[in-house]
Amino acid sequence: MAKKEYSFYPGCSSQKGASSSNYMVSVDSMCKELDIQLNHIPDWNCCSASIGYNGGGELPRLALSARNLALSEQAHPNQDVVATCAACWLATKETKERLEHDSSMLAETNTALKEAGLELKNDKEVRHMVEVLIEDLGYEDIGKHVKKPLEGLKIAGYVGCQTNRPFGINGESFENPMYLDKLVETLGADSIPTYEKKVQCCGGALAFTEPDKSQAMIKDIIGAAYDNGADMIVTPCPVCQMNVEVYQDQINATFGTKFKMPVVYYSTLMSVAFGKSAKESALNGQVIKAKKLEEIAKK
Amino acid sequence: MSDVNTAMVEKYRNNFLKEVANNVEEGEWVRMCMQCGVCSGSCPLGPHWDHPPQELFMMIRANKREEVLTSNSMWMCTSCYNCMVRCPRELPITHIMHGLAHYAKRLGIAPKEQPTNKFSQMFWNNLTKTGRVNELKLGLALYFMNGFSEGIKMSMKMRSIGQGMALTGRMAPMEIFGGHGVKDQKGFHAMLKKAEELEAARVGEHV
Fold this sequence. Notes:
The complex is a heterodimer of chains A (299) and B (207). Chain A has 299 residues and is of the alpha/beta class. Chain A contains 14 helices and 8 strands. The longest helix of chain B is centred in the C-terminal third of the chain and has 20 residues, at 185-204. Chain B is globular and about 55 Å long. Chain B has helices at 3-12, 16-23, 38-42, 53-61, 65-69, 82-86, 93-106, 115-130, 135-143, 148-157, 159-167, 185-204. By secondary structure, chain B is mainly alpha-helical. At the A-B interface, α2, α3, α5, α9 and α10 of A face α6, α7, α8, α11 and α12 of B.
């Protein structure tokens, strides 16, 4: 099969020493196996995520993503923009659509971009890595790469918010998307299609500013995974991953729970199932160790 | 009260709905709300809002300008988009909440001690400085946003989380001396400056 190439927007949290750098490592391993080439958008900037609305306002916020899109058009014409971070994907795709529907806003955006020597045609598709996996490869193709099936593992597919709403993955429902479950099954593990907290909000950036309210929601997300007999949680979103993984000690102290639930990315699971080493799968990036994956990676 | 706020009060008098439609991001959609309440029932932090979205929309129509704009409510939005995908009239509710919060801030009447108001401004300042987020500086700014002694307390409380992130290579102490950023600093800042000017003119033209 021919190599697939995309114009890649990695996003701030993927950088070396940043909070989802482990996501990037496993995505690279996964893509290597699947013969996917990610061409990084040169000199990309932050998309300002969702929480940027306050300081930014509409046009400055749109200009941020427009700059990335314009740089992508320049460097990688004919390649779809692909993001791995839910917020990056959402902000970039929102910008593309807003500017498609509002020609005066597009004109003003281009006036701003001109200051950076850029111009936006706005003719790119903006896609999430999960869409590439499902639509451009498909479950069957992915299954062919599985060398170490994740047998005996039960995994709760936590989709969260922003890879699911408002755009979502084509053909999936907002209330009960099945793609993570299908992916888990493809890799040889058991999924939990009826996992009740699959699309529950973890608080997003408000985990920082409203920790009590957010941690009460995170407690339910983890609790439901335990109730369903899950060994671990898998997610496509860096904020979901961090929020659900790192506050478990604080949640235990507040609610008297005894949570120690690993939370991994789909790319972590895929890298391990594709026979990559623990390091290539970024298992050393787990704050709560995914011991069962480490055992499979060692085999 | 800021000058812009006074000017807006003068201009719109008894028509806050029109003020919102003209000046708030996606604000023209407020007219379409049919008061079904699905948004309020779908919000993960719904119980913590003084006025959930449906109520805010009715208050806008009822000219409760100050109550809406000084409200704590829209700052509770987690950007989960539940309200937006469930709204039978397809109002972009998440964006309207962000828009209302930003407009209140622009007029200088948003609740200043509201933690999300403070943090989201810090986030913007952080990312626009170099073009990319510096997570370490953002985290420290968050801990110390309520003063020094609160900051020390927060840092102690969060110490084990920070250690966990550092040990797994997901937090780099050296980020404090600069860190990541875009190469074209000049172009990046010139673009933002222009966008901010155009944005100010866009709101200003309705004064």
